[in-house]
Amino acid sequence: MKNVDSKSHVRGESIYLDDIPLVQGTLFACVYDSTVAHGKLKSIDTTEAEKSEGVVKIITAKDLIGENQIGGILPDEPLFADAEVHFQGMPVALVLAETEEQARHAAKKIMAEIEPLEIVTDPRIAFAKGDLIVPPKHFKLGDAEEAFKDCEYVFEGRADVNGQEHLYIETQGAYSIPTEQGGIKVYSSTQGPTAVQRCVSRVTALPMHQIEVDVTRLGGAFGGKEDQANAWAALCAVGTQLTKRPVKYALHRMEDMRMTGKRNPYSADYKIGLDKDLKIVAYEVVFYQNAGASADLSPPVLERTLFHCTNAYFVPNVTATAYSCRTNLPPNTAFRGFGGPQGMFVIESAIAHAAEKLNVSASEIQNKNLINDGDKFPYGQIAESEAVTTWTQANEKFDFAQFQKEADEFNQQNKFVKKGVALMPICFGISFTKTPMNQARALVHVYTDGSVAVSTGAVEMGQGVNTKIAQVAACVFSLPIDRIKVHTTNTLRIANTSPTAASAAADLNGHATQIACETILKRLKDVAKDLVEAQSADDVTIENGFVFRNGESTDLDWVTLVNEGHMQRVNMSEHAHYATAGLHFDWGTASGHPFAYHVYGTAIVGATVDCLRGIYTIDFVKACHDFGNSMNTSIDYGQIEGGIVQGIGWMTMEEVVYDAQGKLRSNALSTYKIPDIYSVPKTIEFIPLETMRENLAIFNSKAVGEPPLMYGIGAYFAIRNAVKAFNNENSPAFDAPFTPEKVLMNLYAVDFKKMKAGK
Ligand code: LUZ
Ligand code: MOS
């Protein structure tokens, strides 16, 4: 089944925030943001800006009626800088003007006097100063310290992994409109309409029921709008509150890149211990997370790093520690994988380190340590594992040994072009790690013409959730898909939503939709029972718009049935609630059962490095992926392809650069390189895992959004293997992304050293 949005997307008819028809009297907003990363805010001078043409109002912290606070997890993030500025890009003032150009022009005339304070951008330095966002988090399984004593091999090292710009095609933005009796309606490009509602309520001091948030769809988000859409909505709403006029703000790309946080960079120290059979016996890891200037979502991101610190492996003795370190960068935030990929990169680095020293293939160590059914994760959950089955099926179909052999032969014949191959198993836990967030609601109406309207808490952002929700309703009612319409995500129709995140939106909201539809269907079957003279409602089925009695067709159709239901005053609307069963987690003991299930997979990644220039191509990604029972293969395959490319971008070319002053240097697409058609893998091929296992997912179809990103980690190690094939004396540091510059330096690192030594 096609994505329900495909036609309107192709015709340019789909509505995004910037396409909403303007209401008369709309004002346009522009932020004046700090040009200093850390300092005391002495004064703000807005006199020139106020005289600028078209300016209606300039707002700063002192004008707020509500609280100057937007921190969702911790109250450490002012909407407007007041006493201090904490990062370059922090909003200081908001200009409202009659046109967008006037607002932007006036913002340039604002001046702020800032007394500089020390700027910290490195998480290890922040840690040394004791500047942590939250107390450290720990996972402990077995006794690693004791186990290291008996290990045949022990290796220690460091791994660094950089951040990533979300680069959603649609930038952040919001549009707020005054409603009667002092209320505000906010259109927002957000993954979390309720988060926006709560945030607007806080800064305006209006109760939540006075605030309506509506979301049609987003042009991408990737986690960047789970929390960080709030600020723009809050700014617009404050503008509306203070002027009684509609206020719109759609960020320009450079504003967005400068002012918003990104994937959290990490620095980590690892220690891995193996026995003589290459079984990993002990693993110790310390993560230093670069949180940026405030908590944002960094604490739960940090937790997910711990949850995935052993990836798809079983390690009996694990000690993992994680520090969330405060720096003077824009607050970092959720990004596809939510800290999990960073944790996985570190254990993959540790395995590659061990393999290099022991002169074996990393795949040998990976293979011997895959987690099995009944093994315990470091957080106490018992695995129902597909790690071995995906590994085996990937290798049966694609034959890793053959690729390795071809690469070895190629490398023997070619001096300045080298190939590398790597395997990347993944294991990703599905559910919000904060158990209460695993709930959702759906509102379903059957109208008297037989058409069906569905609303849920899920936000469409190109991932196809609306299509999947429509499929659920179409399936339960046995109607063609064009009889179902999934409507905007709106806080008046669906309250207290969890953000569309954690790969779980189709699952949670799909389940709620299923329950609502089944409830209505049951009532209609009771109506049909009498109309077709069946003995019980259980004898009635509805298939393809017609009623069947004991499996035999009748001439009662869906529309007639619905009309009869209405005449009999049967309720044909339902609001249903779903909460994932069986989840619990206790940070006191750092154990429990946080995930409904895990998604597994194994990818084989091949790369070719040009050893004169340091540039490379990713030749192929071939994977066996665990979809469960895919509800929509074209959508799910799209998620896999996009995830792989995004993961490769993060690991190989996307380089977020802040200078020592905390200024973003990679602040545009000319200086921040993302994968284009030339840098995507030449082939991406995957097979769905064949398994009959039951899981908790909607229609047994496992979550698909985040997990495939982690296959991209394999590209890092494929390139590293190619670099080593050129120069086996060098051991490239584990420092992602592996940009062409770094590749080149590593290809010749040994020669550089000799040159320096005068040899
Ligand atoms: N967001 C969140 C997430 O709030 N909690 C999570 O566990 C999560 N996991 C993945 C992506 N977003
Ligand atoms: Mo996300 S990282 O699932 O918002």
Topology:
Layout: H1 6-10, E1 27-33, E2 39-45, H2 47-51, E3 55-59, E4 84-85, E5 91-97, H3 100-107, E6 111-116, H4 123-128, E7 137-141, H5 144-149, E8 153-161, E9 173-178, E10 184-188, H6 193-204, E11 211-215, H7 230-243, E12 247-250, H8 253-259, E13 266-274, E14 280-292, H9 298-307, E15 317-326, H10 340-358, H11 362-368, H12 387-398, H13 400-413, E16 417-430, E17 439-446, E18 452-456, H14 465-477, E19 484-486, E20 489-490, H15 505-531, E21 540-543, E22 546-549, E23 552-557, H16 558-567, E24 573-579, E25 584-586, E26 591-593, E27 597-610, E28 616-625, H17 633-652, E29 683-688, H18 713-726, E30 734-736, H19 740-747, H20 749-756
Helix pairs in contact: 6-7, 9-10, 10-11, 14-15, 15-16, 17-18
Dioxothiomolybdenum(VI) ion (MOS) is lined by residues 191, 223, 226, 334-336, 338, 501-502, 706.
Provide a compact summary of the structure.
This protein is α+β, with helices and mostly antiparallel strands and 759 residues long. The protein folds into three domains: 6-118 and 166-259, Aldehyde oxidase/xanthine dehydrogenase, a/b hammerhead (Aldehyde Oxidoreductase, domain 3), CATH 3.90.1170.50; 266-432 and 589-751, Aldehyde Oxidoreductase, domain 4, CATH 3.30.365; 439-579, Aldehyde oxidase/xanthine dehydrogenase, molybdopterin binding domain (Aldehyde Oxidoreductase, domain 4), CATH 3.30.365.
